[in-house]
Amino acid sequence: MRLSDIAARVGGAVEGDGSVEITGVSSIEEPQPGTITFLSDRKHAQRLAGLAVGAILLPPDAAPAGVPAIRVTNPHLAFVDVVELFHPPVEHPAEIHPTAVVSPTAKLGFGASVGPHVVVGDDVVLGDHAVLHAGVVLYPRVRAGNRFTAYARVVVREDVQIGDRVTLHVGAVVGSDGFGYVPGPEGIRKVPQVGTVVLEDDVEIGANATIDRAALGTTRIGRGTKIDNLVMIAHGCVVGPYSLIAAQTGLAGGTVVGTGVQLGGQVGSAGHLTIGDGARVAAKSGISSDLAPGGIYGGIPAIDIILWRRGAAAIKRMSELFRRVRRLEGRAGVEPEGD
Amino acid sequence: MRLSDIAARVGGAVEGDGSVEITGVSSIEEPQPGTITFLSDRKHAQRLAGLAVGAILLPPDAAPAGVPAIRVTNPHLAFVDVVELFHPPVEHPAEIHPTAVVSPTAKLGFGASVGPHVVVGDDVVLGDHAVLHAGVVLYPRVRAGNRFTAYARVVVREDVQIGDRVTLHVGAVVGSDGFGYVPGPEGIRKVPQVGTVVLEDDVEIGANATIDRAALGTTRIGRGTKIDNLVMIAHGCVVGPYSLIAAQTGLAGGTVVGTGVQLGGQVGSAGHLTIGDGARVAAKSGISSDLAPGGIYGGIPAIDIILWRRGAAAIKRMSELFRRVRRLEGRAGVEPEGD
Amino acid sequence: MRLSDIAARVGGAVEGDGSVEITGVSSIEEPQPGTITFLSDRKHAQRLAGLAVGAILLPPDAAPAGVPAIRVTNPHLAFVDVVELFHPPVEHPAEIHPTAVVSPTAKLGFGASVGPHVVVGDDVVLGDHAVLHAGVVLYPRVRAGNRFTAYARVVVREDVQIGDRVTLHVGAVVGSDGFGYVPGPEGIRKVPQVGTVVLEDDVEIGANATIDRAALGTTRIGRGTKIDNLVMIAHGCVVGPYSLIAAQTGLAGGTVVGTGVQLGGQVGSAGHLTIGDGARVAAKSGISSDLAPGGIYGGIPAIDIILWRRGAAAIKRMSELFRRVRRLEGRAGVEPEGD
């Protein structure tokens, strides 16, 4: 593909030879000859000298690279378009594999692609262009909108409702029982988990992540929210739209997450609390009380990240601090206590 | 269902109009008209005013609500009975799906329900009323008691022994190899994991959790213990009865957990140590030595939770503490050290 | 099996009656009569008195046990050989189960064993003696070397390349999409994940672990590296050879791990940093910057483990420290600040 054609597709201006042939895409950390890459982060500007690629997407204010370029406002976003040019989404044939077990009462929309060993339960309703990869199991009465994609071995339990353009990655589980028990005279009694899960439009759930159904009512994942691998969303959580939840994070029952929240990896949240809109929480933090909107938090328990960073830095100096206090006590003639 | 009928089922006394029709159940946080809910936690008592439900389960000492009520000793436990009245367990037909692959040497008990694409290996023995959902794989010589339920895609490796009324949620893995290696002259040598796993009666294992088999001997989960999603129980752990282990917690090899222990989410335990009966451990804690029975613990490493909370609160004040010591040093005329 | 025969197999010297019949293996913590066990750790030496086993593997310098023994340089390594004598690996018949769906363009090597409900995609190429257990899904163009073992429900996404003698445990996922998004004018835009994963020779991946494919380029797991259950390796990580990564650990995108690194359980690493050769990181640590080779680290953020242990121990004494500073302030006549 010629560079000028790429520029036309991404709405950018060619700088240098627009007739150069581009054969693919690569990253600026691992540049490949003949490919196109992009510069978005200033810290990579030093890599431009002698960069062995065919072309580069540059922001308007970057210094010229030694190779042909396309100037665009947002090189990262434009690069996504270019990646899709070279790697168009896989087309799945509109057919139902003979080994799939599809209930006669299920309704599949136009263009459905159902892979080997898939199971579609009674009264499931799917929109158009659903793609169910090998081994997917949809329990009865699951409903999903258009362009639903479930990778291999995804399981969706009964009655879960799914919007348009939702993607579930390999092994993700949606609608499993919440962890609810009551101590009783005959041991621990299970509380039936009779609520459900709603995944709104454009949600994506990572590999082997689990989203539990509510005990009563609904566990909800808001429009456009993306959830990474091995995340656990417990029963009754409500996650707002356009949030990002990184891998291995867990939300206990009834956590309320706002709009545009970002949770790092391995974060944990106690249940029945609220994480305000736009809050960002550092990886490995433990959230034990409400977090105000817009803040940046870290630590166990999670506090303002500046305070937490100072505290964490001080950890290294605790021996020093004890020594200094001991010395002051010696000077003051007070007996060191508990030392 | 009339309220008086519900009261009779849960052994409670009607307060107000017992003839009111109840159409379902709801939570006090999300009350639904016409449904019955319950009050167990005093902190919700303020929600009683104007509560838009059909009826409520109340403890003997609670103030009257503005709606018909049933008085019972333990409203939460009674509510579980009521939920089951409205949501009886799904009945599974006693049949083996034609796509299931069941070894001719396997013995399934009375009323077994075997779903599509299930695999039951040689010499598996199951008690009565087993329910194997779609895609379950039981390796050879697995034994389970009565009322064994395995949700979709559960895998149980060879020789695992399972008691009565055990439930394995979607994607749970029981009996996978432990993580055992010995450094040798030719790199890292795998130690064959030739032990097994025993799950005692009434155990429940969460979605995508993994319970490894012992290297030698047995990994054991005690009667009535409940384990949440994405938990990891390593080889040779022995978990006592009636314990609760929340999501994403991990126990390293050889951990011994007592009776009635409660571990919060994302707890980790070093191996070859003992967590005493009735101990409770806060979410995200890291257990690095034996914990005495009955205590409440928190932190990394886990210590008495009061001590840990004080320490965690002090983290926010470390800058202040350094400043105060510096000032004292100034007053005392000693040179600040390392500052 | 006679003890003298075992000694011959492991190249050790019999001490005592070599004609004793050994019926199996057991651990020194749970010794079984008639079996052989081993002593490698000095802390278990006290267990030798009255040890009710048939025989024991001892290091050259250990005191004699009261039972027949085999003297070897490395009893633990020799014990692995003995375990394999009593528990030879399961043989899998070289056959393709009739319910498996194998693409006509896939190439399976000599002796392939393909279980029920397996799916092998177009242009997959496997070496000799592949064993694919029930429900395994290999997407198109996966390539694996000789003696590839995939336990039940393993999924390998398209184009992943796998070396010789690789084992993937139940439910492991290799090649799932990385978690890559760019904020754009129309919400959060997914970055197509068009890279791949390479697993080198002798890699082992634990149950329900997930290894994401790179956005561009390659996620790589080096030769002989072993990864435990529920681990998350994000897109673009490069893990060196002969490393051990314990359960529930997560590496964010672009983490570079050296040779012979050991990461404890539930460790997290921020992305785009380097963990040096031979580094060891304590369980539950959070790595937020490069770690030098050969060091031992702990804490969140991970620092030298000695410093971290001192700091963690000091946490318990924070109340005391504040009290001591307050007392000094009283003596010095300065007003306590913020207290």
Say what oligomer this is: homotrimer
**Radius of gyration of chain A from CA coordinates:** 26 Å
Per DSSP, the total helix count of chain A is 4
Largest interface comes to:
A-B, 62 and 63 residues
How are the strands ordered across the major sheet of chain A? Answer: 7-10-13-16-21-24-27-30-33-35-36
Mean pLDDT of chain A: 95
Helix content of chain A: 10-25%
Structural class of chain A: alpha/beta
- As residue ranges, the low-confidence spans of chain A are none
Count of extended strands of chain A: 36
Q: Describe the global form of chain A.
A: flat
**Strand composition percent of chain A:** 25-35%
How far is the N terminus from the C terminus of chain A?
73 Å
* Biggest β-sheet description of chain A: 11 strands, mixed
Description of the molecule:
Three copies of one chain form a homotrimer. The first copy, chain A, has four helices and 36 strands. With 339 residues, chain A is of the alpha/beta class. In chain A, the strands form five sheets. An eleven-stranded mixed beta sheet of chain A has the order 7-10-13-16-21-24-27-30-33-35-36, with helices on one face. Chain A has a ten-stranded parallel beta sheet with strand order 6-8-11-14-17-22-25-28-31-34, with no helix packed on it. An eight-stranded parallel beta sheet of chain A has the order 9-12-15-20-23-26-29-32, with no helix packed on it. Chain A is flat. At the A-B interface, β18, β19, α3 and α4 of A face α2 and α4 of B.
